Amino acid sequence: MKYKAVVLDMDGTLLNSKLEIDEKTAEELKKFRCIGGKVYIATGRTYLSLKPYYDILGLDTPVIAYNGAKVVSCLGDSILEYPMEDDLVKYFIDVSRRTGIHLNLYQNEKWLVESPFNKESEVYEEISGLSPEEADFENLEEYFSTKVLFIAEKEKLDQLRNEILVDLDGLVHVTASKPFFLEIMKKGVNKGETLKKLMKSEGISLEEVIAFGDGLNDLEMIKTVGLGVAMGNSYEELKAVADIVTKDNDSNGIGEVMSELLAKVEL
């Protein structure tokens, strides 16, 4: 086969606007697996948040979670993790205090917030399917977070992004999967870099990989693989670097590409 692996972002890509997997998409992915292909998930979600969809597809491959900050085996064991620690986490807590912008922290698959009943927590709970754990960020037992996530209106997050890039130049990677999310990982941590490590361990060349995405957090991944596919609902920045643009996530965009590729002898 020309392509041995398919890597899927979740929200806005694998999942439609109802947070469901299209039946036709699932069918085409199953066909790909039946002829020896491997299907991987690479998402900004936590492992616990992605797991129900992983099970629906019947996957048995490692997953990339937290935008590349964690890799988890098919058995649920952590293979790699690149958390932010100490001073960086305390910096983001101070920023949240000063700006009033909602902050999510993540420790050992727990989603930590200081205000579990505000609108930002409710929005994230609806998307992720998780329940928040209330915590006092001034008195955490340990100061680390697999990634950090700010939730607010895009205008506020644009200003915050610029401030963080000035304050922490070269220390963090800043991205977004949605206009109202600002997601921050350790320097050098993104889906693309982690995918390189994972594919090497899986014995698959990056040229043999197809990746689908829609967000700014998919940029490095889409540019890294042999065939980078942007969904029709993608950020324009992602469409600009993708090899092809497919239909949107409510129109079986993944299934359309997979069906066409599966019909070709060279696959």
TrEMBL record:
Keywords on record: Hydrolase
The protein's name in its UniProt record: Cof-like hydrolase
Source organism: Ilyobacter polytropus (strain ATCC 51220 / DSM 2926 / LMG 16218 / CuHBu1)
Any Pfam family matching the protein: Hydrolase_3
GO molecular function, one term: phosphatase activity
InterPro entries cross-referenced by the UniProt entry: Cof, HAD-like_sf, HAD-SF_hydro_IIB, HAD_sf
Assigned GO CC terms: cytosol
Superkingdom of the organism of origin: Bacteria
